[in-house]
Amino acid sequence: MQNDLIRKAMEPVLRHVSRYMSNLKTSKWIDTLLLATPEILDSNLDMRSAAEKLAKPDRFRTIVDRQPASIRPGELEYELDKYLVDMEKRVRFGFGSCLNKSRENLPLGPNSPKKNAPFAGVTFATISRIWGNAINIIIATELVTPLLRNDFSTSERLAEEFNVSATILHEIAHALYLDWQLRMYEKGMPGETWALPEPYVNGEILSELGYSWTNALFDGDMIPFRGRTMWKDARPNLGLFAFKPPGRKDKLGHDTPIAGGILPKTDYYSPVPSTHYEKVARDNFWDFGARKWGLDIVKPWFVAHSEIWDKPNATAGDTYLYKIVINADRMAGANAENAYFGRPNFSYQGLLQLTPPERVLYAQAKKDLRRRQALNRREKFRAKRVDQAQHVQAARDRWELAFSGNLAEETAKQAQQVAPLDYLEQLMFEADDHIQETLAYRREPTRDDKHAYFLLRLNRHLRGIFLKYTKVMQEHKVNPSATDSIEADLTNMLSVTALLLHNRIDVSADITKLDMDPARLKIEADMLSAFYDPKDRKLEQAEIKGVLELCEVSIKGKDWARCHTLGLFWIGCYAGHPTLPYIGRVVLSYNERLPRRWEHFYHGMRNLLDDSEIQDHDDELLRDKWIDIGKPQKKVFDAYPQAMKYFGDVAECDKNKGEMYIDPAEHCAVQ
């Protein structure tokens, strides 16, 4: 390269390609291409006419992976070296405009432009007695010119470099086969032998080695997300998609002679996360990762899937910008700053560079995505609710049968031990489905009042289940060890609904604006006020004493897990009650699991553990009992320093030791 600017821009790209080429000996696909024995395509799979089959029966060939037993050590390295040494003498590398290549041989149709179809690269052989036989690899100028800009972000530049590298690797796969053809030609083999089309690899329905090779490397061919207008002015692509052929766009230039190889109307594109570009650009990745694991390690972990639907009268470029569907639930691997609209390597600046029609298409795609996801969730949860309701009814029938007196004594005794717990479990499963559905519909904090009322009813429903659980424990004397998991799951669900209520309900909202029955609104309003106003909260003293006594027994027996779950239960059922700070402090003081479950606690308790005076309660002895329980011991545990701003004077943090000390009776003590 004579141009210093081009050399500087292409240096990281060529270095990247060289890393792949130096690891080719670890590729199973290369072994198949160079060493597998080609076989004539089965006549039943050949979709040509009978006359064409008779004229050229061996025109199409197929190759499959060799059996491990037939692979000899060093065989691939020897054969690959011969190819690469020969290709080094033949290959000519250059650039050409992707918009000036005429494609008159394309099939006619509304989706098939006859000329000026953009291409990323093209490889062809030339035979000349004067200039010699050569393999020409031409890369689109429009693909490289963005690398000359100096205003790209690191992520955008890495994406462009990766795209050019993948294009060169795509063309190298064609060059390997052309090198074999030229050698066969130079050996004097008949034209119908050496001028055969590219073989089908492992049953793929397209004879396209470039696609096949990049599929083996990346699980797809790299496709930049850009419209046709973006090829002209060196704009950055909005991200790379791995497209796994065959697909709709392959109608434009490839035959499909394999029977049943009908190209689908839907093209599937998987966005490649920007973290993958960064990974393969590091030297230590190739020094350690690729050397140890081979080229299989360069396959990106796709964190999203997208689909591009067929569109009437669409051109190849327009297809990219039609309907894009992305599964945002798997976006964890993408950089947050590049995950705009739930897609990796997409920035707000990239959105501004779209033309107005393209923005309209993208906005419509977002709208369609949300509507489709909502419909899918509704269908899924509707079916789940019907199925779960049947399980609940069946469990209730078994419970009633166990105590009906219609069973034999031994059978009834056994059923009376199992049936109540079975029924409670089914109720919990049903409640858990409601929670999952709620979280699916409302993933962010909201002030939707209908949603808040639903959570409130769900919380009370869970409380009713818990009371049934305690009644079953008392009346039927069920072994407590058999119910630990039920108690833990149930109290955790209670805490989840309580946290949702604390973070999402707007008590001051005007409920008269809701489209609900007035009588029902009155009931819901009363429930809401009773839930939040401790003065109007009417609690049964037996319930309070029962939970406190169970906490006391758990603490004395050092059953920290049960103490933790009981604290969560109290947060879920009696939020705002005067005794909550005492219970919370005892649970915090004696619970060894708090550091690992910090998020569950501070949301629910940061507004409840305040430095106000102890409020009067009907049962003064109850309050004194808690103080007596807390005084004898002091528990030390690791915690985050940020806990200070949530707990105020309840705890103090020793910055030197990074530990927090809590005394439930005296509020705090620093050692």
Reading side by side through the largest sheet, how are the strands ordered?
7-8-9-10
- Assembly category: single chain
Helical content stands at 40-55%
User: Whole-number average pLDDT?
Assistant: 61
Derived structural class: alpha+beta
Rg result: 35 Å
**Largest sheet entry:** 4 strands, antiparallel
- Tally of strands: 13
Question: Can you walk me through this structure?
Answer:
The structure is a single chain. The protein has 671 residues and is an alpha+beta fold. Among the domains are: 245 residues, no CATH class; 209 residues. The chain has a four-stranded antiparallel beta sheet. A hairpin with a 7-residue loop joins strand 4 and strand 5. Helix 6 packs across helix 8 and helix 15 packs antiparallel against helix 16.
Task: Give me some keywords for this one.
single chain; about 675 residues; 23 helices
Briefly summarize what is shown:
With 671 residues, this protein is an alpha+beta fold. Helices cover 50% and strands 8% of the residues.
Which helices and strands occur, and which strands form pairs?
Elements: H1 4-22, H2 28-35, E1 39-40, H3 50-55, E2 61-63, H4 75-90, E3 91-96, E4 121-126, E5 134-140, H5 141-144, H6 154-186, H7 191-194, E6 200-201, H8 209-218, E7 221-224, E8 240-243, E9 267-271, H9 274-280, H10 283-293, E10 306-308, H11 316-320, H12 348-352, H13 356-402, H14 409-441, H15 449-476, H16 484-504, H17 518-532, H18 541-556, H19 560-573, H20 580-590, H21 598-605, H22 620-630, E11 635-638, H23 644-647, E12 652-654, E13 659-662
Helix pairs in contact: 1-6, 4-6, 6-8, 13-14, 14-15, 14-16, 15-16, 16-19, 18-19, 19-20, 20-22
